Description:
Blueprint: H1 2-9, E1 14-24, E2 31-39, E3 42-47, E4 51-56, E5 61-64, E6 66-71, H2 80-87, E7 92-97, H3 100-106, H4 108-118, E8 124-129, H5 147-153, E9 159-163, H6 166-170, H7 174-186, E10 190-192, H8 199-207, E11 212-213, H9 219-227, E12 231-235, H10 243-246, E13 258-261, H11 267-272, H12 276-285, H13 290-296, H14 299-304, E14 321-324, E15 332-337, E16 340-344, E17 347-348, E18 382-388, E19 395-401, E20 404-405, E21 408-409, E22 415-421, E23 430-436, E24 443-447, E25 456-460, H15 463-476, E26 479-484, E27 487-493, H16 505-521, H17 531-536, E28 546-549, E29 552-555, E30 560-561
Parallel strand pairs: 1-4, 1-5, 6-7, 7-8, 8-9, 9-10, 11-12, 12-13, 18-23
Antiparallel strand pairs: 1-2, 2-3, 5-14, 14-15, 15-16, 16-17, 18-19, 20-21, 22-23, 22-25, 24-25, 24-26, 26-27, 28-29, 29-30
Helix pairs in contact: 3-4, 5-7, 12-13
Amino acid sequence: MERLIKVAIGDEKADLVLKGGNIINVYTGEIEVADIAICDGYIAGIGEYSGLVEENMQGKYLSPGFIDGHLHIESTMLSPANFAKAVLPWGTTTGICDPHEIANVCGEQGVLYMINESKQMPFDAIFMVPSCVPATPYENNGATIDANGVDRLLNVCHGVGEFMNAPGVIYRDKDVINKLKHAKNRGVIVDGHFPLAQGKELNAYVSAGIKTDHECVELQEACAKLRRGMYVLIREGSATKNLRDLFRVINSKTLRRLVFCTDDKQVYELQTIGHINNNIKIAIQMGLSPVDAITMATLNVAECYKLEDRGALAPGKIADIVVLDDIYNFNILQVYKKGVLVAKDGKALFEAKTLFDTATRNTVNCKDINIEDFRLKLNSDKVRVIGIEPHNVTTSSLVRKVNVKDGEYVKTDGISKICVIERHKSTGKIGIGLIEGYGITNGAVAISISHDSHNIIVCGDNDKDMLLAVNEIKRVGGGMTAVHNGKVYDTLGLPIAGLMSDCDIDYIAQKTENLNKFALSTLKISPSVEPFMTLSFMALVVIPELKISDKGLFEYKTFKFVPIEVEE
């Protein structure tokens, strides 16, 4: 502190001075031309300074480092180290990370792995304790983190992650209430997850101390949550894109309660269009002031999550700085993390260091299955079908007539079969359902990522290819694969908890891009669907309206399992 004061007052030279840049002031909305003096990784002052090293920033724009308000590193399929390497060149210097994906596979040990690997990188992964492990009692997962586990993890985490078990809050489940009490006693923030919340149920949810929500897909819903004091996190990811639909909620009165998040991005998008910078660019293109868009990605997130040491370019803040060509083109030239240049011209200037942790390996423990296990026996041709909604994780609950022969479902135009196979404890549980809007032809795709319990999920138009896809996932110990006419096209192995790869970014990006292109072109999956990520959300039973787990079809409205056949 004393050295920082000396540099700030001018009695000592700064370590680094960024000279004469256009500094974006997220406190006042101004852009001021000045120097930024950096000392020991912190901003000492803004004004006129000299330093041991000086960099000319004339004509360039300097922004605070971007903060992603909600993400799951695991959903990018990158290890924490490779994730840092992927997002820092796009200006994201901090992420509010909920590791509930790996926690549902590996429990507390999985969370600790994420924390330990992230500490090695020049990226601040602010971890939240997964609140719902398992997410619900309606599926089989790999581990449990109860209220005592939440309390233990709060010793190393910043707050409590998204509370997906909204009914558990409203109806005062004992373990849920104890988790919330631990959070309240420690004074930490609790993230929310309550789609379509309204009225007294929303009041009850907020009264429990839950502060944020990233599940808004409609304007009315976002406004309701803002009125009750929540921060609304506007999501723009790979599978779920809500920014354009929610854009009209942004105005002078709501601006400071709105935050950008990704939740989540695929690797090939991280390489091509970026991360939080993409949210900012879209908002600017839609007419939002660049400074306001940057404020939503910096100061608002920092204030929401009580990160008082970042979110702005001001004395005493961490020197996380993004250098831009201008605030409309938004090309990122350089990124500084704690005063150190970590990325330039789209390239990270450091190497990723992935840890090998035995607790997160060999996690696919799946009972042997055969083609008979995929047969769907029906007494009626009138059935419930999961309806995909383009660019969203929500689905509709449809009723359709399908082809039935000898008491068994047979291929029906426009309808695909979808199955979830338990893969943690070799229980042999398989949920079988039907889905519309996916459009797969002459093949199958499978992935060991299926939110949030991460069993194997497979979709196809014939049982033979579906079985081959599942066995391929077992063979590689977790991953994603595409099968066409009895042959495996390609597979990306995900040996870390069946969720992440330890390979470099370019390899993962190439594999995922090839698999997605093959799924769209050869397997004829609908172009409005992100083939693998969309599939992974079809098991997320805490999202409306109809989903599937390893235990069967689940209806969000009644929060109960429902039969596939519809009574006349």
